[in-house]
Write a structure and sequence with these properties.
Order of helices and strands: EHHEEEHEHEHHEHEHEEEEHH
Shape: globular
Low-confidence stretches: none
Protein name: N-acetyltransferase domain-containing protein
Mean pLDDT: 97
Strand content: 15-25%
Organism: Petrimonas mucosa
CATH superfamily of the largest domain: Gcn5-related N-acetyltransferase (GNAT)
Distance between the termini: 28 Å
GO molecular function, one term: aminoglycoside N-acetyltransferase activity
Number of helices: 10
InterPro entries: Acetyltransferase_Eis, Acyl_CoA_acyltransferase, Eis_dom, GNAT_dom, SCP2_sterol-bd_dom_sf
Helix content: 25-40%
Length: about 290
């Protein structure tokens, strides 16, 4: 059974995180104080015991000139004795349903390694972020500013002026500053990350409005989110459902659509895609990873 966390199950999520990830008590105190919220946490219960959980943290993301709400999957974990039973897969699919209800059109995560990336690919996630971009030095910002708000302003400008970049609130900045101090302010770079379309029509509408010159009919196939299985016509800055029998110029699965909309390495996909979708440099970092 899957249900949202509450005050009676919060400790179970905390203990599960400690068992699976082995993070220090100091880091966990910061994370569970600043980022954890019952209303963003799904738990799988097996025979009444919490055995698997994930968190859907809310963020903003710069997307073709707009700031949109996105979710960041954090703390996905299953107790060792409960693995390979499909519990996490069930949680991820339920999370997709919940994000649809919340009108969140895009979800992201940062995998630990290639095997973990392969696991998430079965749920429609694709790589959309590369590691390596040098991020603002928190110690330098904080020591060179009169207060945290001024430091945040300079930090925020680095992300705010980029398209396809995760955005950080002042509350999140406060949390990552505390975390950085805990670990001696290590230098930070952007992270390898993955994304997944939740609401194809909403994202295509934003894309079309930003690129009114694009005229294109798409067929999208999505094995997990039914509403995304549709034909979409982009023309004159709008998205519509074309008449039955319209021939699509491109046929895409959910992963391909995600990659195209985020502009991730479009040139590698071929000229038929670069004609319609501009290449971007998506960036994600400082996620309390």
């Amino acid at each position: 059974m899957i249900r949202y966390a509450d005050n009676s199950s919060r400790q179970a999520v905390f203990d599960m995180w400690k068992t699976v990830f082995g993070d220090s008590p100091e880091y966990m105190e910061i994370y569970f104080r600043e980022k954890y919220r019952n209303e963003n946490t799904l738990i799988y219960f097996d025979s009444g015991k919490a055995v698997s959980s994930l968190q859907m943290l809310p963020f903003r993301f710069s997307f073709h000139g707009r700031m949109i709400p996105v979710a960041y999957f954090s703390g996905l974990c299953t107790l060792p004795e409960a693995r390979r039973k499909g519990f996490m897969g069930a949680l991820i699919r339920r999370a997709f349903d919940e994000l649809e209800k919340r009108a969140v059109p895009l979800v992201m995560l940062v995998p630990q390694d290639e095997p973990v990336m392969n696991y998430y690919r079965q749920f429609g996630f694709v790589q959309t972020f590369d590691e390596g971009v040098v991020l603002p030095d928190l110690h330098q910002l904080l020591s060179g500013s009169e207060n945290l708000d001024l430091a945040y302003g300079e930090f925020n400008s680095f992300f705010r002026h980029r398209d396809m970049a995760i955005q950080h609130s002042v509350d999140h900045f406060r949390a990552i500053a505390e975390e950085a101090a805990l670990f001696g302010y290590p230098p930070k770079r952007s992270l390898t990350g993955m994304s997944r379309v939740i609401d194809a029509e909403k994202l295509l509408a934003i894309f079309a409005a930003a690129h009114p010159e694009t005229a294109l009919t798409l067929k999208v196939s999505d094995s997990l989110i039914e509403r995304n299985n549709a034909y979409f016509q982009l023309e004159n800055g709008r998205v519509s459902i074309p008449e039955e029998g319209a021939a699509p110029k491109l046929e895409l699965d959910a992963g391909e659509l995600t990659r195209l909309l985020t502009g991730y390495r479009i040139a590698e996909m071929g000229e038929e895609y670069t004609l319609y979708f501009p290449e971007k440099e998506p960036l994600i970092g400082y996620m309390m990873e």
